[in-house]
Amino acid sequence: MSEKIKGYKISIRLDIRRKKETDKYPVKLRVYGKQTQIEKWYALDIDLTEKQFDTIWINPDNKNLRGSNNETRLKLQAIETRANKEAEQMTVFDFAKFEAKLFRKSTDQSNVKYHFDLVIHKNLKNNKIGTAESYKYTLNSLADFSENQKKCNIEKLSFNSITVDWLNEYQNFMLSNGKSYTTIAIYTRTLRAVFNNAIENNDIIKDIYPFGEKKYKIPQTRKVKKALNAEQLKTLFNAEVTNENEQQAKDFWFFSYACNGMNLKDIALLKFSDIKEDRFNYYRAKTFDKTAKKTAITIHLTEYTKSIISKYGNENKDGFVFSIIAVEDSSQTQYNKIKNFTRLINDHIKRIAKANDLPADISTYWARHSFATQSIRSGVSMEFISEALNHSDLSVTKNYFAGFEDEAKKEFANNLMNF
């Protein structure tokens, strides 16, 4: 009663290595991986004597099997069939994936929350806390719509239920609750990724996929890259502060700006070992895992950036440059600290902006965009900007520039003849 397919062998066995007090042995599912030459035995919560196992499984007389014996045989057949089905669907047999599929509930295969939880757990395991959080936000949003509008508990929501009409209703629900098309696009792209994972794992069929041509189209949005112009930058730099938090916010905002729009997470992760004489190299955390080719970004230190490191840097000149996070912190703790630090900087830079008639929605993202626009306004080439921003392709930079405000575009056009 066994079958060999794609490098594995599955069979029902009686584990006679240890007899129980009932004089019976546990019946187990034996799985052997041919490539790894590893075998595993899985308990099935069924105990039989050697004679019973022979009668029910080894040499059964199907015509004479009655009552509990017949029920036991049918149960074992169902287990073996399901085990072979799950293993057969894998291109390469893998014990971890096999166990995850075999021991889940039958309803998990098409359950939306189950597949979201898989992705969230995987990202947490790989210390991708921010990515895990984004999947959690999407799941919470879907739960809000499913439970309040469709009267379906998120625990029972299946992929089959998410049709084009369902997604259009979800979009209208989001809009009616004040959500932007950008937020809708982020959440529906995340849902699409979970759909693709489920299809790739052979848990659902492609026929129910609700995205694409003549189906639900994820809103195409272009976020305007907000930036300060030269006069506003000067105003912010010379602005008076009322406390240490505001001074710190201004200092780190301009440190980001002066370091090619360096993200605060990358600033927090900067180590003294990254600094070599008058420069430092780092890898952008946001895109590091998304590209096969890892390109280091080089930042040349100026008198200003050196002064910020001198002012806020750790005195022992070891480990992280700034005391935003600690080496001994867990990934989750580091994520929380960076998130709180970013919120602190944004809150106080907004206070400075308000007091000086600058844009009220300024944030740390504006430092990156301001660096790009100021560089373009100064006549720097698109190739330089692309390298400085660590874009994967020049087309990304062109799209980035396409998002700048009209004022910057006009100024760029007028400067073409300034040679």
From TrEMBL:
Q: InterPro entries given for it? A: CB, DNA_brk_join_enz, Integrase-like_cat_sf, Integrase_catalytic, Integrase_recombinase_N, SAM-like_dom, Tyrosine_recombinase_XerCD
Q: Matching Gene3D superfamilies, A to Z?
A: 1.10.150.130, Intergrase catalytic core
Example of a GO biological process term: DNA integration
Record domain Core-binding (CB): where: 106-199
Kindly state which keywords UniProt assigns to this record, in alphabetical order: DNA integration, DNA recombination, DNA-binding
According to the entry, every stretch annotated as the Tyr recombinase domain falls at 223-413
Q: What Gene Ontology molecular-function terms does this entry list?
A: DNA binding
Regions that span the bilayer: none
List the PROSITE patterns.
Answer: CB, TYR_RECOMBINASE
The residue range of the signal peptide is none
Q: Which family does it belong to?
A: Belongs to the 'phage' integrase family.
UniProt cross-references to PANTHER family, sorted A to Z? PHAGE INTEGRASE-RELATED, PROPHAGE INTEGRASE INTD-RELATED
Under what name is this protein listed? Site-specific recombinase XerD
Write down the species: Flaviramulus basaltis
